[in-house]
Write a structure and sequence with these properties.
Structural class: alpha+beta
Number of domains: 1
Order of helices and strands: EEEH
Strand order of the largest sheet: 1-2-3
Radius of gyration: 17 Å
Shape: globular
Number of helices: 1
Strand content: 15-25%
Largest sheet: 3 strands, antiparallel
């Protein structure tokens, strides 16, 4: 089983300064074991980050793209939340 997987996005990731296509890779190991999200192309990559948004900000900064705002957090699936009663 591979510890890394490529993540597909609906919108194409911005290319590097040289025009190479970028791809989002998630190393599924814990961050303390060297895991995290990073973006790479044929000529470079970001460092690994616990969150994808941080990797994207680094990628955009390195490649002179506008830095995106952090994405909004998704709400909790309240249908699966169980109430805890304390006596």
């Amino acid at each position: 089983m591979s510890t890394q997987r490529q993540i597909s996005h609906a919108d194409k990731l911005p290319a590097c300064k040289r025009g190479h296509s970028a791809r989002h890779i998630h190393d599924c190991r814990r961050p303390t074991a060297g895991g995290g999200h990073f973006i790479e192309c044929a000529c470079g990559s970001t460092s690994k980050h616990p969150e994808y948004d941080d990797a994207m900000r680094e990628w955009c900064s390195k490649n002179d793209h506008p830095i995106p705002k952090a994405s909004a957090q998704r709400g909790l699936p309240l249908g699966t939340v169980t109430a805890i009663r304390r006596s």
